[in-house]
Design goal:
Length: about 475
């Protein structure tokens, strides 16, 4: 019988006394290091890891395990997907002004709910209500956790046990299981669908209105477009109908921009101001989509309705914390100076980067990437199309440039998958996308090219499946 040789490793003490052991203790403490060393020894004993003889080598294994475990779960990545407001990658990046405001609010007590002048209790939303009024012309506003919460709060306040009338063409599902009918159910509102998927007329709404109606709702079809033989009712007409029946008309804008994007050569997206001028009594929108701020839900509109929303106990459950209020206030302040908005607001800055600039960036990076990958891969500068993301302007793409990486010889799709995995395995994971057999890096969101260059040195060509 083949008996495995007895394993006689150095003692735990000896391992801890090695240089690497001392380093691990300095970084992670004696208790954690001892535990990690014992785990390494156990794996060696079980034959799950090569049996190392040297104390230093065993300590190094333990240190590596500790470092891996010490890495924060949520950490920065490089977004080369070409989708600017990527929900899975955290949507909008904050402006420096917003970041500074958050840091200041974290470090010290603030007047979150305190009127410093009067020396009395104040309201947290007061810090941004004025700005929203000023920027949108709304009478008042209320702030909650995100736009899903905003819709929930509106429906629960104005249409609980009553009907919310909405077109069948607008019963949206957006990523992360936000389905309008489900939210309505949870809000206690009864969904009253009208019209058909492609065509809804004013008379469909009019016929649905009865004693049980709570409100009329228009939902921005954020992530799709109904094309062809279609009809939808203009918001102004819906507003008139709602007013005639003394019902609130709510417009869920989703993304909600405060500026005309056409100013920067992008397609015009209905603004919050447009929606309010179009007769919406309440408009709901997100803080971290086109607005470019922190996650937040904003309801802006008629003062009496906002007051009702603010009194709903759900508002307390959905309220914003001081950090996000600080970030939102600082972000909104930037809108007072539209001339400099594209410089200061990262979302808009990324939207407005020109394909030519991105092409030049791709050309600079291409040889470095090619050198890092070696002869097994061909790296090519390509024109591509970035997306806005987060369901804003779903069909609008931005002319962009990037790099496409393909196996230079005959290779399977698995090789490209493995390469994508290797790029994700570096300390600052590089996230691209795979298209037509190539790993594609859209460079629109790469503002710090040295960060990507630094990751190239960390690529492990000998990784599990190898890069070549
Ligand atoms: C994005 C979106 C929502 C949800 O907003 P969150 O801020 O992600 O909660 C709701 N309605 C519409 C139309 C949207 O586009």
């Amino acid at each position: 019988m083949n008996r495995p040789e007895r394993f006689r490793p150095p003692s735990v003490d000896e391992i801890l006394r090695s240089g690497e052991g001392a380093l691990a203790i300095a970084r992670h403490g004696r208790a954690e290091t001892t535990r990690a060393v014992r785990q390494v020894l156990e794996r060696m004993r079980q034959g799950e890891a090569p049996r190392l003889g040297a104390a230093g080598a065993i300590a190094r294994d333990a240190l590596e395990a500790l470092e891996r475990r010490g890495q924060p779960s949520q950490r920065p990545v490089i977004n080369l997907t070409g989708t600017v407001l990527h929900t899975n990658l955290g949507r909008a990046l904050l402006a420096e002004e917003a970041i500074e405001a958050v840091v200041a609010a974290m470090r010290a007590p603030t007047n979150l709910e305190y009127e410093v002048g009067a020396g009395q209790r104040g309201e947290r939303d007061a810090h941004v209500r004025g700005l929203i009024r000023e920027l949108t012309g709304a009478e008042d506003a209320v702030l909650v956790n995100n736009n899903a919460s905003a819709v929930l709060l509106v429906l629960n306040t104005l249409a609980r046990d009553r009907e919310a009338v909405v077109s069948r063409g607008e019963l949206i599902e957006i990523g992360g299981a936000f389905r309008m009918p489900d939210i309505m159910g949870r809000a206690g509102a009864i969904l009253r669908e009208v019209g058909t998927t492609n065509r809804t007329h004013l008379k469909d709404y009019a016929e649905a209105i009865g004693p049980d109606t709570g409100l009329l709702l228009k939902v921005h079809t954020s992530n799709y477009v109904v094309q062809g033989f279609t009809a939808e009712v203009a918001p102004a007409e819906l507003a008139k109908l709602a007013r005639a029946h003394d019902l609130p008309f709510v417009d869920d804008l989703g993304s909600g921009t405060l500026v005309d994007l056409a100013r920067w050569g992008l397609r015009h997206e209905k603004t919050v101001q447009d929606a309010l001028q179009g007769g919406a009594d309440l408009v709901t929108f997100s803080g971290d989509k086109l607005l470019g701020g922190p996650q937040a839900g904003i309801v802006a509109g008629r003062g009496d309705l906002i007051a009702r929303l603010a009194r709903n106990p759900l508002k307390r459950a959905l309220r914003l914390d001081k950090l996000r209020l600080a970030a939102l206030e600082a972000t909104l302040r930037l809108y007072r100076d539209p001339d400099r908005l594209a410089e200061r607001l990262p979302t808009l800055r990324l939207f407005t980067r020109k394909a030519g600039e991105l092409h030049a960036l791709a050309e600079r990076l291409r040889p470095r990437l090619a050198a890092a990958l070696g002869a097994g891969w061909a790296v090519e500068t390509i024109a591509c199309a970035s997306q806005i993301g987060s369901g804003a302007l779903p069909l609008e793409t931005l002319p962009s440039a990037g790099l496409a990486i393909r196996p230079s010889g005959k290779a399977s799709g698995a090789a490209v998958e493995a390469l994508a995995a290797a790029f994700r395995a570096v300390p600052l994971p590089v996230i691209g996308r795979i298209a037509q057999g190539a790993l594609v890096f859209d460079l629109r969101c790469l503002e710090d090219e040295s960060s990507l260059a630094a990751q190239l040195a960390e690529l492990k060509p000998g990784g599990r499946d190898g890069l070549a």
